[in-house]
Amino acid sequence: MRCVEQVVGAVGNPRLAPLAGGGALGRGRRHAALRTDALHVRHVREGAATTASRAPISPDVVRAMSLDLFFDYLGVRLNGERAADRRAVINWIFPDLDRRYVLNLENCALTYLADRQSEGADATVALDRAVLDRLVLRELSAADAVQRGMVHVTGDAGKLIELFDLLDDFRLMFDVVEPRRLPPSGDL
């Protein structure tokens, strides 16, 4: 780590600039350790790389998911803190696949049962799988889908909208380790 601190401190010091890797930080390094150090220095100087705002998952992955895996995925994305006092039972009907599910939101967790429906559900949602894919990919909001007639809801449509509002979008890049920052003076 001391080496990295020295390299980070070399930024802005012409005498030590070769240590910092110049403008092409990490590029052209033949030795893996030097390349790794140079990329670590970039991370320390500039922070984690940012990516354009988009859905937290690839469209190809969403389309390849089975419905069981899809409901598991929703459970992973559920923000437990925001869902702490929420309860909902939602029946799902997929006419294009001839499948039915019941989803339960309770105790900060999502659970589901395949090929079942609840008589006491807050809402029953009927939609095609392609529409579900668009909802998850954030190409379409739940409210817009209901308004356009792409999703048919009987019961409390607010429960469906609330469910999608409780889902987290994960950042694709993040700091694994927060490095110690050096003073801006550049002195070693």
Rg over C-alpha atoms, rounded to the nearest angstrom: 24 Å
The level 1 CATH classification of the largest domain is Alpha Beta
Helix content: 25-40%
Low-confidence stretches: 20-26
Judged by helices, strands and strand pairing, the structural class is: alpha+beta
The string of secondary-structure elements, in order, is HHHHHEEEEHHEH
Beta-strand residue fraction: 15-25%
Report the end-to-end length measured between terminal Cα atoms: 14 Å
Mean pLDDT across all amino acids:
78
For the sheet with most strands, the description reads: 5 strands, mixed
Annotated CATH architecture of the largest domain: 2-Layer Sandwich
Overall strand count: 5
Number of domains: 2
CATH topology of the largest domain: Nonspecific Lipid-transfer Protein, Chain A
Give your account of this protein's structure.
This protein is α+β, with helices and mostly antiparallel strands. It folds into two domains: about 1-50 and about 175-188, no CATH class; about 60-165, Nonspecific Lipid-transfer Protein, Chain A (2-Layer Sandwich), CATH 3.30.1050. It has helices at about 1-10, 15-20, 30-45, 60-65, 65-75, 130-135, 140-145, 155-165; strands spanning about 90-95, 100-105, 110-115, 125, 150-155. Helix 1 crosses helix 3. The protein starts with a helix and ends in a 23-residue tail after the last helix.
